[in-house]
Amino acid sequence: IMAGIAYCHEQKGDYKTAVEKYKELADEYAEYYMRDDVLMRLGSCYEQLNDQKSARSAYQRIVDEISNSQLMDAAKKKIEALSANQGKAEEKSGSLSTDALKKKIEKLPAK
After folding, report:
1. FRET pair for 71, CA 20 to 30 Å: which of 14, 32, 65, 81?
2. From the CB of residue 47, how many other CB atoms can be counted at a distance below 10 Å?
3. How far apart are CA 76 and CA 92, in angstroms?
4. 70-82 burial: b if 16+ Cβ within 10 Å, else e
């Protein structure tokens, strides 16, 4: 029932409430048979709210916690896309994460 309520909020565009319901379901019902779908929807709602970090975390939970998920490849693709988008945004804003800065330094020619 809770998944249906969360889904209704998501479809209405009430992503904040949908996040609350999906998060509760994912956190409190570890054995829920559609938990991977709940986490994918949670990630999608976070993306709609422009919370890339939380979205990536939701997708990562599928990879880390549900090894037999049929959504594993989709979750990994979402993580890659969000990571790529974050790197582009950091470059645009001029603020790079430590990892991004290290990668840029590694690409510099040796003297």
Report:
1. 14
2. 20
3. 25
4. ebeeebeebbeeb
